[in-house]
Design brief:
By secondary structure, the protein is α/β, with parallel strands linked by helices. The protein is built from five helices and six strands; from the N terminus they run βααββαβαβαβ. Strands 3-2-1-4-5-6 form a six-stranded parallel β-sheet.
């Protein structure tokens, strides 16, 4: 039997400030959050503790999870220090304890934490659904819009012998 969790990666004040289409992404994540809660699906927040970028250091105002998608009692919050949400965290153990086999992935910093965590989840045999309109980043070497479009394509076409990462919109995402 499959159990799906909503994974919200690093949707923190400092990362959403100036992110591409932040309002739209926050609205899409909030809608997914409401649907996940209504379906009784586990909700897991990853919260990045940056070691050198002051706005993202633990306890700073920018470190807080964005209030538009704030956790509620019963939601799981896992702090991390690496892009890969599984590295040196309890994420795998917590998902196993909850019986989760599939992840609906949303979040911030598409090319870093969203990408690394999607790839790690796939390698750990999770079914992964990346929500195309519910992850974001800021402009970097290339524009944020291009980064997001590229990752929606690249992650959906990764080579893996048994699994793939599905990519669909927030309106299409379901919780089992």
């Amino acid at each position: 039997m499959s159990r799906t969790a909503l994974l919200i990666i690093d949707v923190q004040v400092a990362l959403m400030d100036g992110a591409w289409r932040a309002d739209e992404v926050l609205a899409n994540i909030a809608a997914l959050l409401a649907r996940a809660r209504a379906a009784g699906a586990p909700v897991v927040f990853l919260q990045h503790n940056h070691r050198s970028f002051k706005p993202m250091m633990q306890g700073e105002p920018g470190w807080a999870i964005h209030p538009r998608v704030a956790p509620r009692p019963g939601d799981l919050i896992i702090e991390k220090t690496a892009s890969d949400g599984f590295l040196d965290t309890s994420l795998q153990q917590d998902l196993d304890r909850l019986g989760v086999t599939a992840l609906v992935v949303t979040g911030a910093q598409t090319e870093f934490c969203v990408d690394a965590t999607c790839r790690a989840a796939l390698s750990r045999s999770f079914d992964v659904l990346l929500v195309a309109d519910a992850h974001t980043t800021g402009d970097a070497i290339i524009p944020a819009e291009t980064i997001i479009r590229h990752h929606n394509h690249a992650l959906a076409t990764l080579a893996h012998p048994q699994r793939s990462i599905a990519v669909m919109t927030s309106a299409e995402a379901l919780f089992a």
